[in-house]
Amino acid sequence: MRMPKIIACVALAVLCLVHASGAGLAADPDPQQVLAPTGRLRAGLYPGTPTSILPNAQGEPRGVGYELGKELARRLGVPYEPVVFSKNAEVLAAVKSGGVDVAFTNASASRAQEMDFGPAYLEIELGYLVPKASAIAVIPEIDVAGRHIGVTEGSTSDATLSRDLKQAAIVRAATITVAIEMLSAGKMDAFATNKATLFEMSEKLPGSKVLDGRWGVERHAIAIPKGRELGLPFLRMFTEEVKRAGLITEAVGRAGLRGAMAAQ
Fold first, then answer.
1. d(CA 17, CA 210)
2. pLDDT, tens digit, for every residue of 117-164?
3. 49 - beta bridge partners?
4. Quick one: pLDDT band at residue 32, thresholds 50, 70, 90?
5. Pairwise CA distance, residues 33 & 142, whole Å
6. Is the pTM for the entire model greater than 0.90?
7. Structural domain boundaries of the chain?
8. By C-alpha distance, which of 127, 134, 188, 138 is closest to 161?
9. CATH assignment of 125-216?
10. Does the 32-124+218-262 domain belong in CATH 3.90.180.10?
């Protein structure tokens, strides 16, 4: 008489296990759907720096961000759609709004409050560019009363140096192109950002110099909009695989990126 009750208990336990297993499978997300919900990977990029995208006379753009986005799209099995903005602030706004699916930028603590990041793939020294015949020879001579130090408006350099520089005045430029014009016109005594961008700027400012030393380090990582954290395990795996395979180092070389190395 007790057998039916035992059988019923066993059957119930089996059903519970099957249900739990099914729930587990349902909870395992498809990275393609999470990271590229429109069916294509929209990568936010901005020109003027080899960390993102630069034009190429042969047609195919170069830049670490551009190449990483292309490889990520390939591994997700979706078309690649680079979305190029005029400045990094616009890229970050697009990540926050979900207007793009990924961006390649400095994973600062303040930005991590507004978007999610995978592991760092690139480390870049932060420094200063001074124009020709500048009186500034070393970094300790930057923070002096009467000096005007340029940053890109809304950048990590803006946030950090606005707090750390006590004597020099901060001057903000909307874009890297504008910063070059301001340096050339004598409206800035130095410009601060990562050295990859500074070396690129120096080629457009004859006689200018990137100062030796650094005032910090940027750690670049892939950013995604908040609410897509189920895609982070795939991003972690992707980042570790491309670093291990040497793809970051190769992209750095093709982009002509200086002052940077693959993150450890």
1. 63
2. 999 999 999 999 999 999 999 999 999 999 999 999 988 899 999 999
3. 53
4. very high
5. 48
6. no
7. 32-124+218-262, 125-216
8. 127
9. 3.40.190.10
10. no
